Amino acid sequence: MTEQRTHQDQLDLVRSRYADIATGKSNSCCDSTTESSAGCCDEGATAAIDLRTAARALGYTEAQLAALPIGEDLSLGCGNPLTAALLEPGMTVLDLGSGAGFDSFIAADQVGDSGRVIGVDMTPEMIARARANAADHPHVEFRLGELEHLPVANDTVDVILSNCVVNLVPDKAQVFREAYRVLRTGGRLAISDVVRVGEFPAEILADDASLSGCISGAATVDEVTRYLREAGFDDIRIAVNDRSGEYIKEWEPGSGAEKFVQAAIIEARK
User: Fold this and answer.
1) Rounded Cα gap, residues 121 and 117, in angstroms
2) Among 57-71, 149-163, 187-201, which is the least confidently predicted range?
3) CA-based, 20 to 30 A from 29: which of 121, 176, 209, 258?
4) The whole model's pTM is what?
């Protein structure tokens, strides 16, 4: 692609990519099924056993993995936002860009039957997979919607999770404004995403696969911090994983993506 993408172009590109992943027509953002690809936004490219191997490499515990529907190939991201979520029984959790439900089901196990988990994703095919996976989980709900316009009421959520999705959204500032709107006072944001640590070369910026593959849409730490502050958040903490290049380099082998983006855990409070 040589012309500048419009807002709708980017949404359509990402939606199409993840619809194909959900229906098995395309591989994950890393286009690899090797163990070395652990950590990319894996949505259906690998067998469940490989997904769990990748999840362990990102810091998911055996207890967390035990909460997943048996044999389901769900989703993965670029880190484990649940390490920062500090979930407790009875909480209401919102998972932004929930895919087929990987983090949603782990969160549901942690908040228990007295809690509630809402997953939001803009891809109908992903929502269909997630709802099928949730058949035996009555306190997990998946809603079709865009992160810039959340189908969630004001002041109703205790913790917001997300895993390598905000980078895919054109208007990141609007995502954080929406997150602030739906959180209760004292509520927390705990997300894993990629941040830009170098200037992208023109060929990466022009590459549709780099955008939909969790690379060229990344914002800098300073930009993310500004978006969060302007939305109203306090206690902002962004911890960059400087070892994440070990798996990011496998997302688009040979592109040098690991020189331009790194994974990070982003926390903030309303």
Assistant:
1) 13
2) 57-71
3) 176
4) 0.87
